[in-house]
Amino acid sequence: MRRITVISLIMVAALLNSCVAAWAGDIVYYTVKPGDTLYGIGSSYGINYRSVMSSNGLASTTIIPGMKLKIPSGGLTVHTVKSGETLYGISRKYGIRLTEVKASSGLSGDLIVPGMKLIIPESIPCAGGDNKVKPVFSGRFSFNRDDIRLLAKLIHAEARGEPLQGQVAVGAVIMNRLVHEGFPGTISDVVFQKTKGVYQFTPVRDGQINLEPGQAAYYAAECAIKGEDPTGGALFFYNPETSSDRWIKTLPVTKVIGNHVFAK
Q1: Are strands 68-71 and 27-31 parallel, antiparallel or unpaired?
Q2: What CA–CA distance (Å, rounded) separates 255 from 176?
Q3: Which CATH superfamily is domain 17-121 in?
Q4: How does pLDDT run across 101-130, given as a tens digit for each residue?
Q5: Does domain 145-263 correspond to CATH entry 1.10.10.2520?
Q6: Residue 120 to residue 91: CA distance in whole angstroms
Q7: If we measure between CA atoms, which residue out of 76, 213, 237, 44 comes closest to residue 145?
């Protein structure tokens, strides 16, 4: 019995070491993996990538696998798992998605044990709004979780890799169309609108609309629904390097963000 107990303790210790990000006191460290970017790392912890750069004295966004980064605590809460708690219950307590807790804490599965420390990221704040998106949006329109998810899917398909402002801008175009008499009155109808039998948005035509949106796309969708519009009221956007539509290039330009031109 004693041998089994010792083996069990060793297994629990190994689990704690393998599942949780590296800790030194209350300081969180992240080891860079192949394919990581500072923007992605910052988003997964609910903080701006520039805060990561500042905390690590980085002069550029270049990072290499194996590099150990200090994660500033400004956007983090540390939760110590108590007996009887579940990941789902903890995520509900903090009002965030279960997948966000797992990503920030370096968990590959749902198993947690008492005493384990979990990193709870805060939502990225939108300009001029709080961090909580209600299922129903007050005012002329009402939006549910499905609307937010669909908007996030379009943003991800159209603007993944763009700066956060550029992703918010794509969402803002959809929101601007909702209040314009020349477009449908729901997010779904705008996203799936056709012109002469052809979907207006390329990702809907080629199937990329079905890709799973990332955390940044959800943040951008929430910001756009709350009214943030960095485009200046744009109703259209395009990439001048890839677009072959001559008509859209004749429209008045309101803003250029990243690789996209926004126009009315």
Answers
A1: antiparallel
A2: 14
A3: LysM domain (3.10.350.10)
A4: 777 666 778 888 888 877 776 554 555 444
A5: yes
A6: 8
A7: 213
